């Protein structure tokens, strides 16, 4: 069928009947096969044929056009988001074989929903952002459809009235509608919805996480449980805690730092008696205190923060006088201590800390016990004293400092006589390894990144203190990545190439500064995303093909392979085509080959230089162009053409005085083929009259010469029937010609009215090709050979004479030696 259509097209092209105006038909994409899209019968008569039936077919009798398969507009026109998506076809109609060009327009339907590149979108907004402030959103959705189907509108869900979306032709912005307060709500979890403009709209959603960042908009406040009164017993010791003040600031970081100070309005006596820790808010005795009468001091304390007026509270301290000697406790430390403070490392098993002895001056001896909140400690009587010990191992990370309260009571335990506080400090040991927030991280990065680009930040915490809790990071397998040892920021130091490596697994080590140190591990999986950075690749920049000029149409000329190292659509070859126009070749992309689409004739054109382009499916697409040279090999399809003589009736007069061996005329023929197919030989196969002809022909040059002197019987007309053959294999092509020669003394112009009626039933086979050089030099070769033979005989005779003479001389010498010795010897014949 294709052969017949192509023949029609060639015929019609030569007849000039191709219509220049194209018919337009319209169809919707994604329709089932068999949907009618129009008819040719409204303009043209039957029959109807299509040159290409890839997407549509035609009813040959009615001219109705139907879809042949589902057509996806986005696949057919991937790079044309706006404007018509079309493909063309050609029909051959009517009995006059008219050629009609058709353009089929594929209209878009809403078959693609909007797509967000990321499902999670993060945005940071300061809490003091004014109402109406707009923040751009770079993460917009994409829709492959066109027109209203690809027009996207956005709105928010779960915004709580705080935000709204503002959209114009080019930008998408998040607008603040209400005042933000980080201290009330720090994270707003919104849903960004993208809806296209189709009649049945499609939508997509992405989580929009808005983090409200802190500004210094809160001032310090004293806690409600901060003490307003405190009592100092007589004989107060320097450093004794009087009151612990607490104040808070709702801000974060530097904005929440508070410093405590006394107001200038307190008395000088109070300034001398009390000390205020500006960082912790602890009021303690600045000196040892002993008074004879009660004292009352009012301490005004300020909580200060930058850019804020100070918060103020008032603490009333009562100092009791010395009335009578009080019982005291003598501490005999068992473990390490510094300045009356017991120091104990964490994780120690239950340990004896001190031996307590009660020094009581009263007549009624008292007893010692621990306050009910003094856990995890125990106090046991031991031979009139008491052993203070831990009841379980202490954990620095849970509590680093304990105030153990020892109560002195009367013997019956009914009246409190005094309290003593023993301070126990827990020393940290490196018993905690760094712990990552998550043990596995996943991160995507596009290839061809800039060196030094930020990848992600990992973070590990260590519950230990000081150097034990200071964490440093290291990559055990670096590759093209580096990590900042203090911050945990991982960056890419080289430009990545997905085609070389698509996935990297990084092992992150977090190590503390203990001795010995402890370690924690996390794994970071990095996926390199593909970009269309590799054009299609051919195996060679120049293809060479050799085909016979008799190659059938649609036959394969050669294999054409092309590949693309990219991934997904970026690596799909969507088009391979020949850029040259009007060439009898086409690319078969499905089979990966170059095929002939028309007849080729070496005699018209012996080679074709083609430019072939391959285009990938990336956006933007990349392409590669290669050269293809197709050499047309000759076929013996042209007979020799005799140029001289010009016709079978040509005649030439020969003088009887012509010398033997002289050339009388010449046959000149050409063959449009090449090589052996154009190698011409000449042969006389018949003569008129049939007697022995005095003429001969050189089979290579076509020269006709006299073989002998002309005699009387040679006078008259001679007709030579000559076959001109080419050298084609296996069957040469040939033509014949009559050469008419008149032997006459008068060199008048001769005429031939008719050639002999000669039609051989079968032409003789071609004569074997002879080497003219051997014939012309045969006598020279003979004389040279004869001379060589004479010289060889002479040399042989000379060698024989010399050999005989030497043999005779040697025999005489041996005979003389025998007689001189007088011994009887057996004479042996000479070999």
From TrEMBL:
Transmembrane segments: 779-804
GO BP: anatomical structure morphogenesis; homophilic cell adhesion via plasma membrane adhesion molecules
Localization per record: Cell membrane
InterPro entries linked to this entry: Cadherin-like_dom, Cadherin-like_sf, Cadherin_CS, Cadherin_N, Protocadherin/Cadherin-CA
Keywords per UniProt: Calcium, Cell adhesion, Cell membrane, Glycoprotein, Membrane, Repeat, Signal, Transmembrane, Transmembrane helix
GO terms assigned for molecular function: calcium ion binding
Chain ranges of the Cadherin domain: 48-116, 117-222, 239-352, 336-436, 437-538, 539-642, 646-758
Membrane topology: Single-pass type I membrane protein
Cleaved signal peptide residues: 1-20
Keyword Ion transport included in the entry's annotation: no
Record Pfam families: Cadherin, Cadherin_2
GO cellular component, one term: plasma membrane
CDD domains per UniProt: Cadherin_repeat
Superkingdom field: Eukaryota
Primary localization: membrane
Protein name from the UniProt record: Protocadherin-20
């Amino acid at each position: 069928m294709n052969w017949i259509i192509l023949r029609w097209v060639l015929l019609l092209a030569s007849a000039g009947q191709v219509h220049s105006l194209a018919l337009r038909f319209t169809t919707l994409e994604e329709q089932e096969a068999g949907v009618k899209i129009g008819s040719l019968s409204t303009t043209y008569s039957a029959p109807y044929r299509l040159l290409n039936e890839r997407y549509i077919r035609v009813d040959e009798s009615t001219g109705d056009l139907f879809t042949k398969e589902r057509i996806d507009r986005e696949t057919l026109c991937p790079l044309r988001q706006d404007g018509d998506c079309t493909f063309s076809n050609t029909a051959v109609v009517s009995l006059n074989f008219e050629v009609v060009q058709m353009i089929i327009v594929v209209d878009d339907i809403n078959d693609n929903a909007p797509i967000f590149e990321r499902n999670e979108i993060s945005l940071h907004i300061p809490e003091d952002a004014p109402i109406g402030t707009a923040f751009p959103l770079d993460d917009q959705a994409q829709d492959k459809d066109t027109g209203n189907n690809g027009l996207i509108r956005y709105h928010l869900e779960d915004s709580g009235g705080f935000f709204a979306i503002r959209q114009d032709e080019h930008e998408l912005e998040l607008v603040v509608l209400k005042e933000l307060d980080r201290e009330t709500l720090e994270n707003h979890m919104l849903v960004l919805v993208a809806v296209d403009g189709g009649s049945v709209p499609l939508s997509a959603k992405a989580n929009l996480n808005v983090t409200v960042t802190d500004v210094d908009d809160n001032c310090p406040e004293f806690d409600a449980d901060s003490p307003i009164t405190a009592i100092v017993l007589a004989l107060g010791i320097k450093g004794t805690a009087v009151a612990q003040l607490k104040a808070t600031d709702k801000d974060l970081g530097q904005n929440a730092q508070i410093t405590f100070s006394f107001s200038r309005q307190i008395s000088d006596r109070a300034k001398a008696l009390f000390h205020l820790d500006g960082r912790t808010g602890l009021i303690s005795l600045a000196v040892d205190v002993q008074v004879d009468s009660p004292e009352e001091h009012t301490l005004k304390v300020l909580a200060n923060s930058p850019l804020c007026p100070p918060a103020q509270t008032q603490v009333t301290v009562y100092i009791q006088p010395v009335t009578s000697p009080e019982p005291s406790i003598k501490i005999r430390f068992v473990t390490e201590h510094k300045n009356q403070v017991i120091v104990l490392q964490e994780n120690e098993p239950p340990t004896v800390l001190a031996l307590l002895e009660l020094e009581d001056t009263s007549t009624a001896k008292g007893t010692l016990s621990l306050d009910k909140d003094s856990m995890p400690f125990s106090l046991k009587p031991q031979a009139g004293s008491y052993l203070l010990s831990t009841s379980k191992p202490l954990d620095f990370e849970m509590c680093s400092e304990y105030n153990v309260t020892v109560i002195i009571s009367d013997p019956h335990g009914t009246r409190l006589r005094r309290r003593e506080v023993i301070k126990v400090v827990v020393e940290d040991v490196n018993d905690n390894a760094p712990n990552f927030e998550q043990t596995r991280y996943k991160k995507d990065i596009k290839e061809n990144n800039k060196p030094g680009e930020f990848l992600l930040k990992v973070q590990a915490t260590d519950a230990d203190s000081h150097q034990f809790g200071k964490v440093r990071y290291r990559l055990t397998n670096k590759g093209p990545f580096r990590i900042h040892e203090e911050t945990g920021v991982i960056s890419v130091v080289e430009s990545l190439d997905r085609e070389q490596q698509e996935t990297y697994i990084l092992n992150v080590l977090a190590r503390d500064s203990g001795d010995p140190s402890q370690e924690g591990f996390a794994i970071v999986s990095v996926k390199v995303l593909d970009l269309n950075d590799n054009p299609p690749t051919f195996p060679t920049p120049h293809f060479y093909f050799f085909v016979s000029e008799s190659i059938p149409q649609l036959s394969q000329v050669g294999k054409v392979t092309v590949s693309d190292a990219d991934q997904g659509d970026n690596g799909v070859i969507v088009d391979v085509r020949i850029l040259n126009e009007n060439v009898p070749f086409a690319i078969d992309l499905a089979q990966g080959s170059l095929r002939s689409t028309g007849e080729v004739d070496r005699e018209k054109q012996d080679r074709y230089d083609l430019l072939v382009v391959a285009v990938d499916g990336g956006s933007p697409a990349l392409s590669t162009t290669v050269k293809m040279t197709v050499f047309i090999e000759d076929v013996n399809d042209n007979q020799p053409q005799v140029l001289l003589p010009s016709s079978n009736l040509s005649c030439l007069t020969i003088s009887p005085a012509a010398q033997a061996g002289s050339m009388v005329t010449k046959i000149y023929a050409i063959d449009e083929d090449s090589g052996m197919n154009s190698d011409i030989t000449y042969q006389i196969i018949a003569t008129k009259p049939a007697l022995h002809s005095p003429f001969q022909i050189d089979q290579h040059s076509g020269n006709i010469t006299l073989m002998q002197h002309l005699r009387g019987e040679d006078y008259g007309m001679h007709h030579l029937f000559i076959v001109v053959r080419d050298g084609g294999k296996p069957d040469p092509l040939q033509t014949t010609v009559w050469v008419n020669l008149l032997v006459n003394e008068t060199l008048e112009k001769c005429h031939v009215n008719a050639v002999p009626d000669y039609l051989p039933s079968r032409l003789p086979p071609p004569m074997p090709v002879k080497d003219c050089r051997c014939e012309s030099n045969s006598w020279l070769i003979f004389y040279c050979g004869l001379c060589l033979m004479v010289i060889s005989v002479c040399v042989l005779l000379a060698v024989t004479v010399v050999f005989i003479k030497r043999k005779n001389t040697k025999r005489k010498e041996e005979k003389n030696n025998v007689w001189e010795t007088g011994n009887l010897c057996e004479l042996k014949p000479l070999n």
